[in-house]
Amino acid sequence: MPRKPVPPKQIVSREPSNGKSTRKILTHPLFTPVQISTRTPLLETDYNFHKSNSTYFSDLDVSRTKLMTRIISPGFKKVNAQLEEEGHRGRMVVALGAVHVTFRKEIGIFEKVWVRSRLLGWDEKWAIIVSYFVRTKKGRVDGTNGPDKGEELCAVGLSKYVVKKGRFTVKPDRILRMGGWLPKKQPDQAGSETCNGEIKLSLADVQRKDDEAEDAEEGLESAQTPAIEGRVVLDEKTAAAAESAAHALSVSDADNSAWDAEAWDWEEIEEERLRGLKLAKTWLALDGELCEEFDKN
Q: Which residue ranges are recorded for the region named Disordered (predicted)?
């Protein structure tokens, strides 16, 4: 008898460290996971008839594309138009910068699994995505055959994306804000602060650093551009088509006037962003260290 599909896992609420609220921050649509299902055909198995490690990456491509289309498309065309007015030329693309996968449980031939991806956090350049491969857990507590009991984790993936307009790097915060995902900062949040050892930039700081980054990038040779493993998640045509799928995000006005500040305030979203970055901090640092190690040889 076929098993029932595993529903998306309910994320447990947690209280922000500022003690202001007990709202479920991870149920904010920006951090809500997307889910796809997949199976392992015969030609994607290894000599043990388990899912080949290399095939996890193609499943991640599909899952991440679904997530990034939902997140990026609402503000994509607006930011692209702004950048054109600012003098930036070239196609605007979302590019994959790195992928890391940890394998925990083998996946058998034709076995159905679900891949859940969500936005973990973002910094001045990268949007970090975490993905989970899960399946229905088999057996009862005593180990005998019985009804399904929950689910188990088979693999975990970390990925990072960058948005480029030609050679100009577009900050994730800019696209998210234009897409209506982020509320306005309040006047008392305009200054830069330090939280968990990281600096929260004011809007003025962001604009200033945008200008500095633009000037610096214009002087770089193409050989100095960081290598990226993949492209073509979104371009202008794909973004236009994806807008219909994101019709529920009609709050995409640039002033974010449709946001209910009482439901989701900037501090809570910022806290979750920094928490996600902290989880990925070592991985992000390792990426640069490995490149430095290559230069030494």
A: 1-23
Q: Please state the separation of Cα 139 from the chain's center in Å.
A: 34
| Burial degree of 98 (CB within 10 A; 0-12, 13-18, 19+) | buried
155's enclosing H/E stretch is strand 151-165
Long-range contacts (CB closer than 8 Å, 24 or more residues apart) made by 217-221: 217/167, 217/168, 217/169, 218/167, 220/167
Per residue in 219-250, pLDDT (tens digit) is 433 333 333 344 444 455 445 444 544 443 44
Q: Tens digits of per-residue pLDDT, 186-227?
A: 655 543 443 333 444 444 444 444 554 454 444 433 333 333
Cα angle: 227, vertex 230, 236; to 5 degrees: 110
Place of tokens 């188990």: 152
Pick the CATH number of 25-235+262-296 from 2.40.50.140, 3.10.129.10, 3.40.1160.10, 3.40.50.620: 3.10.129.10
Question: Of 214, 197, 199, whose CA–CA distance to 83 is shortest?
Answer: 214
Distance CA 171, CA 86 (A): 15
